[in-house]
């Protein structure tokens, strides 16, 4: 009986003659299409040996070209794609951290599609430095003597410690031996850079005397790490920058600070928690400060190092600096973002991360209402929707205790599997990432743009249909 149906399976050559398949090859790649044809035909052959349902096999053969098209398109589509962030976590590391504004990206586009003066001094006509485009701006905004930019803040910390403390001891508080995630831990980074960690004090309290007692002839630096991603609350004490800088001066030992998030404005003015700024550290006299470009600063992924020229000079010449160097896209996006900080008002209204964090609750609420109106019909599918008061998070390991009031759409259902719906939303052409909590889906409207409301309502309908 099997023989019959085997003969109905088309030959590869015949499949290649189908008009849709020819078009598919032009649109994608011959190799990809061949791979899909083989997979589909193998699949059919395998099911023949397992089933007796000839009708379904015939249907499958009839739909062969459609299956090949969708299989190939699935392979050909970009795997790295935009998503809708309805989680309310503004700096979501898994969803790409900070957004860059269109205005800044237009310039990146221009620089990427044209030749540029990346390392060319237009004045002298000779070789220039890729950092020169950024240094003046960073100095102007932070007040630091000099600056350097590398790929990310983790690289910045490695470079700073390698350049300043290799073979020497670095004193750090026990309460600040943080893990940043992705196995980046201060003690391990220290080891990588060839410095020896001398941890002092206790988890909850460290006094200046603890540092002072640990100073030896072999001390290379005093390190302060901003514990941006967690808080020890209760009976605590950590050193002020002034105390640690005074000790550094007294003992002629440089002070390094890993600030984590690069905050350049006073967030408490906008109803958020006060987060130490880069300017605070520069003003306090910290010798070298490192921070991220894509956390609270709101720029591209980068590690920014600012501080005294004598130290930055050493780092500029260090071989790791070459290994960690930034590309032209980063320089362009960072220059554009930093420039906005020349006016705080412009920074807050134009840098997406700052805009999202300082957004007016009324604005979020009207977006929630707009979406609510659009998804009204899903009641009929057994999904109950309501607007609820919720809290957004800053994310990116910044301000871990901050809960920013927001409005969210809460979806639940007695008849549908809400977990499956959450997954369905993630698997849309433009995935919608939501928060699943106690059998409800929460869509936080803080991190959603007005122009995404339509996309969400259509996506939601589609995901329900596909359940
Ligand atoms: C986030 C963070 C880092 C790592 O920064 P990346 O830019 O993600 O490499 C290092 N130190 C601290 C304190 C941080 O919060």
Question: How would you describe this protein?
Answer:
It holds the Pfam family SelA. The chain starts with a helix and ends with a helix. α10 (186-192) links the parallel β6 (169-173) and β7. The protein folds into 3 domains: 2-76, no CATH class; 84-93 and 358-466, Aspartate Aminotransferase, domain 1, CATH 3.90.1150; 102-350, 3-Layer(aba) Sandwich (Aspartate Aminotransferase, domain 2), CATH 3.40.640. It is of the alpha/beta class. The mean pLDDT is 93. It has 21 helices and 16 strands. The strands form 4 sheets. The protein has a 7-stranded mixed sheet, sandwiched between helices. The chain has a 5-stranded mixed sheet with strand order 2-12-13-16-15. It has helices at residues 2-6, 12-16, 19-27, 30-50, 54-62, 64-76, 102-113, 132-142, 153-165, 186-192, 208-214, 241-251, 278-284, 309-317, 319-323, 328-340, 344-350, 352-357, 361-374, 418-426, 453-465, and strands spanning 84-85, 89-91, 120-121, 126-127, 146-150, 169-173, 196-200, 219-225, 255-260, 288-292, 303-307, 383-395, 404-413, 432-433, 435-437, 440-444. Bound molecules: pyridoxal-5'-phosphate. Pyridoxal-5'-phosphate binds at residues 152-154, 157, 178, 180, 225-226, 228-229, 258, 260, 292, 303, 397.
Instruction: Tell me the name of the CATH homologous superfamily of the largest domain.
Output: Type I PLP-dependent aspartate aminotransferase-like (Major domain)
Q: Alpha-carbon distance between the termini?
A: 36 Å
User: In the CATH hierarchy, what is the class of the largest domain?
Assistant: Alpha Beta
| Mean pLDDT over the full residue set | 93
The CATH topology of the largest domain is what?
A: Aspartate Aminotransferase, domain 2
The small molecules bound here are:
pyridoxal-5'-phosphate
Classification by helices and strands: alpha/beta
* Strand element count: 16
- In percent terms, what proportion of residues is strand? 15-25%
Task: Characterize the biggest β-sheet.
Answer: 7 strands, mixed
Q: What's the CATH architecture name of the largest domain? A: 3-Layer(aba) Sandwich
Count of DSSP H/I helices:
21
Give unreliable regions as ranges. Answer: none
- Work out the radius of gyration: 28 Å
Could you say how many structural domains there are in total?
Answer: 3
Strand order of the largest sheet: 5-11-10-9-8-6-7
| Fraction of helical residues | 40-55%
Shape: globular
Cofactor: pyridoxal 5'-phosphate
GO molecular function, one term: L-seryl-tRNA(Sec) selenium transferase activity
Catalytic activity: L-seryl-tRNA(Sec) + selenophosphate + H(+) = L-selenocysteinyl-tRNA(Sec) + phosphate
Pathway: Aminoacyl-tRNA biosynthesis; selenocysteinyl-tRNA(Sec) biosynthesis; selenocysteinyl-tRNA(Sec) from L-seryl-tRNA(Sec) (bacterial route): step 1/1
């Amino acid at each position: 009986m099997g023989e019959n149906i085997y003969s109905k399976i088309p030959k590869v050559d015949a499949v290649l003659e189908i008009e849709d398949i020819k078009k598919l090859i032009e649109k994608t790649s011959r190799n990809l299409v061949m791979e899909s044809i083989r997979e589909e035909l193998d699949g059919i052959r395998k099911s023949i040996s397992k089933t007796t349902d000839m009708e379904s096999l015939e249907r499958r053969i009839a739909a062969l070209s459609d299956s090949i098209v969708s299989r190939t398109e699935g392979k050909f589509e970009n795997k790295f794609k935009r998503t809708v962030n309805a989680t309310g976590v503004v700096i979501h590391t898994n969803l790409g951290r900070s957004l860059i504004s269109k205005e800044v990206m237009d310039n990146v586009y221009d620089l990427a599609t044209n030749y540029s003066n990346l390392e060319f001094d237009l004045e002298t006509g000779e070789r220039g430095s890729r950092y020169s485009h950024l240094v003046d701006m960073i100095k102007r905004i932070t007040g630091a003597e000099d600056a350097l930019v590398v790929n990310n803040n983790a690289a910045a910390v490695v470079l700073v410690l390698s350049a300043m403390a290799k073979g020497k001891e670095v004193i750090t508080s026990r309460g600040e031996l943080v893990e940043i995630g992705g196995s980046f831990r201060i003690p391990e980074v220290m080891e990588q850079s060839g410095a020896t960690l001398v941890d002092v004090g206790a988890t909850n309290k460290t006094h200046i005397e603890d540092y002072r007692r640990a100073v030896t002839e072999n001390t290379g630096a005093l390190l302060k790490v901003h514990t941006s991603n967690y808080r020890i609350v209760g009976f605590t004490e950590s050193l002020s920058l002034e105390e640690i800088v005074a000790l550094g001066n007294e003992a002629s030992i440089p002070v390094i600070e890993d600030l984590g998030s690069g905050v350049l404005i006073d967030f408490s003015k906008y109803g958020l928690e006060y987060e130490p700024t880069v300017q605070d550290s520069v003003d306090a006299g910290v010798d070298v400060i490192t921070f991220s470009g894509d956390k609270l600063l709101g720029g591209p992924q980068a590690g920014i190092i600012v501080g005294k020229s004598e130290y930055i000079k050493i780092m500029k010449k260090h071989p790791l600096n070459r290994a960690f160097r930034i590309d032209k896209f980063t320089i362009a996006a960072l220059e554009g973002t930093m420039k906005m900080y020349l006016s705080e008002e412009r920074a807050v209204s134009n840098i997406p991360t700052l805009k999202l964090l300082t957004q007016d609750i009324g604005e979020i609420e009207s977006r929630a209402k707009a979406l609510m109106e659009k998804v009204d019909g899903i009641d009929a599918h057994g999904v109950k929707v309501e607007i609820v008061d919720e809290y957004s998070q800053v994310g990116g390991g910044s301000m871990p205790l901050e809960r920013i009031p927001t409005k969210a759409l809460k979806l639940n259902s007695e008849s549908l599997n809400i977990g499956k719906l959450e997954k369905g939303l993630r698997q849309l052409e433009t995935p919608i990432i939501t928060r699943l909590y106690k059998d409800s889906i929460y869509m936080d409207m803080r991190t959603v743009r007005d122009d995404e409301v339509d996309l969400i309502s259509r996506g939601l309908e589609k995901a329900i249909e596909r359940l």
